[in-house]
Write a structure and sequence with these properties.
Largest sheet: 2 strands, antiparallel
Oligomer: single chain
Order of helices and strands: HHEHHHHEHHHHHHH
Structural class: mainly alpha
């Protein structure tokens, strides 16, 4: 399982970095700017504090539910599309949840250590945390959204230099080179998949199996209790059997506070999500 996670590490890392914006709220400055915009459009005539509560409730919605109509209901009327466009967040105007940032730093450090077998100080969790802080609080000359793996590598290199000078240049060059090669292989694989002719789905799932797979995926996404497999005899298809094994492992670590289990929790959760998504993509219609 670690090798599977390591193989997709560059892609998963940037997905998780960019997804930090999905759970972010506007910074105080951004919230005030939106407040003034809505005031100017005649959409709000109460205090900033009340507006901010409405704003936070809007950003607490899942990303796919953050439609203009949802915010319109909190205002004095429907806002212009141009005003709603200002509600888009990036790393320059968003307040990123620090716990999510630290969880991602821990996950990244763990995979670099266990998956990549690196032992250098440049992969220390503190260094990774500072790198992520640099990315999510970017200077004016850096990107503020759509982070790619090269962006992470450059931010990491700058962080290492800031903390250690040039003393670890050789290690950084080697590690980053290996990771960029890993990322290039992923790009090639994705291109090959796109170029591959459409194949007949590789697995036929009953509606019960589909419902369970979707329930497992939702539980992993929302950190809910994992659903039991609905049939007493258990799954019969190899991929479902394997998914159930990972689910059972996740149940063990989901709510534990033991450090030796906590560090594996995010990795197992990511595996569950990946396998559920692949099952649902590969199923016959």
């Amino acid at each position: 399982m670690i090798q599977e996670l390591w193989h997709s590490f560059p892609r998963t890392l940037v997905e998780r970095i960019n997804s930090l914006l999905d759970e972010a709220e506007p910074s105080q400055a951004k919230a005030f700017q939106l407040y003034k915009s809505c005031q100017a459009d005649g959409l709000w005539d109460e205090s900033f504090e009340k507006f901010q509560k409405k704003l936070n409730a809007f950003y607490a919605l899942p990303k796919h539910d953050r439609r203009k109509s949802a915010m319109d209901q909190a205002l004095n009327g429907p806002m212009p599309s141009a005003t709603f466009a200002e509600f888009h967040l990036n790393f320059r105007n968003a307040a990123i949840d620090n716990r999510s940032l630290q969880t991602l730093a821990s996950w990244t450090h763990h995979l670099l250590r266990v998956g990549g077998k690196y032992t250098s100080v440049v992969i220390a969790e503190d260094i990774i945390s500072k790198t992520l802080n640099y990315i999510t609080q970017p200077p004016a000359f850096e990107k503020s959204s759509n982070i790619d793996f090269d962006d992470f590598c450059e931010a990491w290199r700058k962080t290492v230099f800031k903390n250690y000078g040039k003393s670890h240049d050789a290690e950084m060059t080697r590690i980053v080179g290996e990771l960029r090669y890993l990322n290039s292989q992923l790009v090639i694989e994705e291109q090959q998949r796109r170029d591959r002719p459409v194949m007949i789905p590789t697995i036929y799932l009953t509606q019960t199996e589909i419902d369970w797979t979707m329930a497992v995926m939702e539980a992993a996404e929302e950190n809910l209790e994992m659903p039991k497999y609905p049939l007493s005899k258990g799954p019969q298809k190899p991929r479902l059997i394997e998914l159930l094994r990972v689910v059972q492992l996740y149940k063990i670590v989901q709510n534990t506070q033991l450090p030796e289990f906590v560090k594996h929790r995010e990795s197992i959760r990511a595996t569950i999500l990946d396998r559920c998504q692949r099952l649902l993509v590969d199923k016959a219609s």
